[in-house]
Write a structure and sequence with these properties.
Number of domains of chain B: 5
Largest sheet of chain A: 9 strands, mixed
CATH topology of chain A: Purple Acid Phosphatase, chain A, domain 2
Number of strands of chain A: 16
Order of helices and strands of chain A: EEEEHHEHEHEEEEEEEEEE
Largest sheet of chain B: 7 strands, parallel
Distance between the termini of chain A: 26 Å
Structural class of chain A: alpha/beta
Largest interface: A-B, 42 and 54 residues
CATH architecture of the largest domain in chain B: 3-Layer(aba) Sandwich
Helix content of chain B: 40-55%
CATH topology of the largest domain in chain B: Rossmann fold
Number of domains of chain A: 1
Shape of chain B: globular
CATH architecture of chain A: 4-Layer Sandwich
Radius of gyration of chain A: 17 Å
Strand content of chain B: 15-25%
Number of strands of chain B: 25
Number of helices of chain B: 32
Distance between the termini of chain B: 86 Å
Oligomer: heterodimer
Radius of gyration of chain B: 28 Å
Shape of chain A: globular
Chain lengths: 216, 815
């Protein structure tokens, strides 16, 4: 599904990432690599699999959508405890195998936990095809179209039964700011409080839908 | 009995009952045991004076400070309720104080300040009053073994509250450890009578004990008067519903008559409603009516309890928070609003009044719908016939085991083989398999052999012994000890910081600032909600305000009582309840027949909504929930239409546009026990249910770090929902036994699959009574009225979502 932020077309992907088709830029947010490792490091036996899985999913997106540049809009890693030998090695070998340039706009989790060992370039924000990309939505300039992460947006749909269905998805804040869903599958979400003009997009069975929002 | 204690009792003019003498003698002979006696006959002294007397005989009554210290801790008193600790403490201190004995009796619970806790650990008191969680926590300190070396007796109060749940298992494991240290330790449990008492005591007399075991039953029956407030105009009394305050005026009249009344309701929300209702009718009682439930702040509850004790309160509106043993002698009568839900429960509540030997307990039952009249009459019958509820034991829960194993190795490094030997002596884990044991050890050491757990290590092997070295892990574990899970609670505070209590997150998030709600009997206005704290002020104007709902509000009727109701309905007698409900029952027999235990009544009727089938197995709400889904699934496998189901304690209903018939063959088929588990798993969305149950399992096993308001900011990186955890395990370690445990718990506890199977087997041998009815009968009406909360049993989230989206799109297109 393609929407427009300002005049820039942006394709929302069912894998939870945004593609700027004119420049081939893939934007992902909140990957939280090494989250299960954080748990293990603190004595909670949570199995490994998330880090490898998430990195693999990025690779396959790069192939599928012929991505030319990767932007991670913050929170690439989860916590310093989670940057165990295993996590660091996974990330390092992934970075080495990466065939396209990657930029990280630093998120709060990255700031707290990045080890110099990873030698990654980190910036506050980056512009691509007229879109301002940064981690926290509050840092987006009002007048410029932008993409951010940080909030892990979700929206709960309700029918007559008492239990609603919580959907993770893209929150378009009127007029031109897009908040991306968290890319990590092992991370929680936060309910949005939509304002007039906002839109919400989610995925069922690999299909993107616009979800009609009820204003509270 | 030591002379000093005999004299003390004489002085108090107490003549010991036979059961007390029997207990003292049995203890003297070195036995462990269990004691059943009604409340108010001196159970406490029966189990306490034995060990106390023994100490006096061994060491005399004139101990100096040094000798007293040397005694160490000799008695441990375990109470399931923190709230009971203080009252127990007072009761246990009484003889010690009166006789001027130089012995310390002290309490350690979750409420004790950390300063006091540290002091207590330095020098344990002679008698320690504590909770299972708190005692378990003590096991994590290496010096506890030495400090508890002199314990001769552990008393477990209110054992019936612990049996059949994970706290009971935790208690059992802690006792196993104490016995491992000293096999001669005597344990005495106090228990209300249970339907399956022989089974319920098995965890108390395990293989590891070297003492004999005695069961002592006080041959005393409390005098009990159970009567019911009969509605004057029965014809306008509702057939169903459960919050009605219709009889509030009559209740106020009863309150006028007697000094102090406890008014029990079944949910916290109902206490708020009744409190408001009483004050509306009697505004001048504002100072004399109080409210008490589990979500109020500790201080407010303590204040109410204090007022009750001194007797300067007319009525306390409360929930089960006041069910248990606190001795409120001044309570003159008890009122039960709504279904008692269980026989034991009703009797326990009645026992709150007339709490002295020889006095009569009185309870007045206030129905909120017509059929509850039958419940009251049936409960009274069952009580007279001593037919009361059973508690099923738990089947070796692995989450409790792994928590306990970590507790043990933190306190004392130990080889896996020795640990296993110890655990095998407990009753609950007596037949743990090699696979289960290996999994449990893996879980605390390397995560497991099959899935990847790189860099994980909770306990490590040092010189052949398991031990935990990481201070952070020890700290996190200590914080996590316990088996009680509660929803993340939101604190309610006034703007000035005064703390009022807790409320559930999903209620408060629906409110906007400025909106009003009722809490602790007060009309409050939400100022803001931020970081697990809702700030409120007293509302100045009166707007419409909601009463919050708390989870776990709806308790099912016990199967024993449901069964008693089924027979009672059929054998109408001269009791006022049955006389009052007779007109309604005769409508039922005129339009259909009365349901009975001899056959299974099934009614079929049509309405504007389509066709309805009503089944009345009288097996209790939980079983009906499973049955309803099962029958709906089996009947509609070939049907295009969706079926809505509802259930209550008496039966369940199916509703569909068309296609539901009173056809004996197809009904028999849908009630068969064949493929039961497979079909249940298909129709109940057990995966979804298991995911919810996983929350408790993961919490107990130490996978979820509880989020406590205002504390533990350090563990923020470890916040994760049980749902996400469940998905991670499903994906990367699907064979994990905790996942299996969650599914098993859903089947056995939520769906009560054993009872469900038994019910189906019984039905198979009963004739079916098939009735075509013109209208909804009195039995059918409540099930029909519940249709708004009906759910579609089949269908997964995706299908539901597609439907919702289609509907929303249709709606928006027509606008």
């Amino acid at each position: 599904m393609t929407i427009h932020l300002g005049k820039t077309p942006v394709t929302l992907l069912p894998e939870f990432g945004a593609l700027l088709p004119r420049t081939g830029t893939l934007v992902l947010a909140d990957i939280h690599l090494g989250k299960s490792a954080t748990f293990r490091a603190r004595g909670l036996p949570v199995p490994e699999g998330d880090t490898t899985d998430d990195l693999g999913r990025i690779d396959s997106m790069i192939n599928t959508y012929e991505v030319k540049q990767l932007v991670i809009a913050g929170d690439m890693v989860h916590a310093s405890d989670g940057l165990t030998k295993y996590t660091l090695e996974s990330i390092r070998s992934w970075l080495e195998s990466l065939s396209i340039p990657m930029v990280l706009t630093e998120g709060n989790h990255d700031r707290k936990s990045f080890l110099p060992a990873l030698k990654l370039d980190r910036v506050k924000f980056i512009s691509a095809d007229g879109i301002h990309i940064t981690h926290e939505p509050k840092d987006l300039p009002k007048e410029t179209p932008g993409i951010a992460g940080h909030l892990h947006p979700s929206y709960t749909l309700k029918d007559r039964s008492k239990v609603g269905i919580k959907l993770k998805g893209y929150h378009l804040c009127y007029p031109h700011h897009l908040v991306l869903p968290a890319f990590s599958q092992f991370t929680g979400t936060h309910p949005i409080s939509p304002s007039i003009g906002d839109k919400f997009f989610s995925v069922t069975e690999n299909q993107l839908h616009e979800i009609p929002l009820k204003l509270v | 009995m030591h002379q000093a204690l005999t004299d003390w009792m004489k002085q108090k003019k107490w003549k010991p009952f036979q059961f007390q003498k029997d207990t003292w003698e049995s203890f003297r002979q070195g036995n462990s045991g269990v004691l059943h006696a009604p409340t108010g006959f001196g159970k406490t002294l029966a189990v306490y004076l034995g060990p106390l007397s023994e100490s006096l005989e061994e060491h005399g009554t004139e101990l100096n400070d040094k000798e007293s210290k040397a005694l160490g801790c000799q008695i441990i008193w375990l109470t399931p309720l923190r709230a009971l600790a203080n009252d127990t403490l007072n009761a246990l201190q009484e003889p010690v104080k009166d006789l001027g004995l130089n012995l310390r009796v002290d309490a350690r619970t979750g409420d004790t300040s950390s300063y006091r806790k540290a002091k207590l650990r330095e020098q344990f008191p002679y008698c320690l009053v504590t909770t299972p969680e708190s005692l378990s926590l003590l096991l994590t300190y290496p010096d506890t073994k030495e400090k508890l070396a002199n314990v001769k007796c552990v008393i477990i109060d209110e054992w019936h509250e612990l049996i059949g749940n994970k706290r009971g298992v935790q208690t059992e494991l802690v006792l196993t450890r104490l016995r491992h240290w000293n096999p001669k330790i005597r344990t005495w449990a106090l228990s209300a009578t249970l339907g399956n008492i022989d089974e319920a005591i098995l965890p108390l007399k395990p293989a590891g004990s070297e003492t004999g075991f005695d069961t002592i039953t006080a041959d005393l029956k409390k005098k009990m008067v159970i009567n019911t407030l009969i509605p004057k105009r029965m014809e306008s009394f509702p057939w169903s519903g459960h919050i009605g305050t219709r009889l509030a005026a009559d209740v106020c009249k009863i309150l006028e008559k007697k000094g102090t009344t406890l008014l029990f309701t079944n949910t916290r929300a109902q206490t708020e409603i009744w409190y408001q209702e009483i004050l509306k009718r009697k505004p001048d009682w504002a100072e004399q009516v109080a409210i008490h439930h589990g979500s109020l702040s500790k201080q407010d509850r303590a204040q109410v309890e204090e007022n009750l004790k001194v007797g300067n309160v007319r009525c306390v509106v409360c929930t089960s928070s006041l069910d248990l043993g606190i001795d409120f002698s001044p309570v003159d009568q008890v009122i039960q609003v709504g279904s008692p839900k269980g026989i034991t429960r009703l009797i326990q509540r009645a026992g709150r009044s007339g709490h002295r030997p020889g006095q009569t307990s009185r309870i007045t039952c206030v129905p909120t719908n017509a059929l509850e009249l039958v419940e009251f009459a049936a409960a009274r019958d069952s009580w007279e016939k001593s037919e009361i509820e059973s508690r099923q034991l738990l089947e070796k829960p692995l989450d409790v085991l792994v928590q306990h194993l970590v507790t043990l190795v933190i306190g004392e490094p130990m080889s896996a083989a020795k640990l296993k030997k110890e655990i095998l002596t407990s009753y609950t884990y007596r037949n743990i398999t090699a696979t289960e044991w290996k999994w449990a050890i893996d879980f605390i050491t390397n995560g497991g052999a099959l899935a990847a757990y790189p860099q994980y290590e909770k306990a490590k092997l040092v010189m052949g012994k398991l031990t935990v070295a990481d201070k952070r892990i020890i700290q996190l574990h200590r914080m996590n000890i316990g088996t009680i899970t509660s929803d993340s609670a939101i604190l309610i505070k006034y703007v000035n910081g005064h703390y009022l209590g807790t409320i559930e997150e999903n209620f408060i998030t629906k409110l906007k600032p400025g909106k009003q709600f009722i809490f602790a009997g007060k009309r409050l206005e939400l100022v803001r909600f931020h970081k697990l704290t809702a700030t409120v002020r007293n509302a100045k104007t009166k707007l419409k305000g909601d009463v919050p709902s708390w989870n776990g509000g709806r308790m099912p009727l016990s199967s024993e009582l449901a069964h008693a109701v089924a027979s009672k309905i059929h054998t109408s007698d001269e009791s006022p309840e049955m006389k009052a409900v007779l007109p309604i029952l005769s409508i039922q027999s005129k339009w259909s027949v009365l349901p009975s235990t001899e056959s299974l009544l099934i009614e079929h009727t049509r309405s504007r909504e389509g066709e309805h089938l009503f089944f009345y197995p009288f097996a209790g709400r939980l079983v009906h929930e499973g049955l309803a889904a099962l029958v709906a699934y089996r009947m509609t496998r070939e049907m295009a239409d969706s079926v809505h189901v509802t259930q209550n304690d008496y039966g369940f209903s199916l509703t569909a546009r068309s296609g539901l018939h009173l056809d004996e063959n197809s009904i028999r088929e849908s009630l068969s026990t064949e493929n039961l588990i497979e079909d249940l798993q298909k129709c109940m969305n057990t995966a979804e249910l298991a995911r919810r149950q996983f929350r408790e399992v993961a919490r107990v096993a130490g996978l979820i770090v509880p989020q406590l308001p205002g504390r533990h900011r350090k563990s923020r990186d470890l916040q994760v929902s049980a749902k996400l955890l469940y998905e991670v395990f499903q994906r990367y370690d699907a064979d994990n036994l905790l996942i299996k445990q969650a599914s098993d718990e859903i089947l056995t506890r939520q769906l009560e699959v054993n009872r469900l199977r038994k019910t189906l087997a019984e039905i198979a041998n009963k004739p079916l009574e098939l009735k075509e009815t013109e209208r909804l009968t009195p039995m059918a009406f409540p099930l029909w009225a519940d249709r708004l909360s009906a759910y579609l049993p089949a269908g997964d989230a995706v299908t539901r979502l597609e439907k919702m989206l289609a509907r929303l799109q249709k709606e928006s297109a027509s606008e």
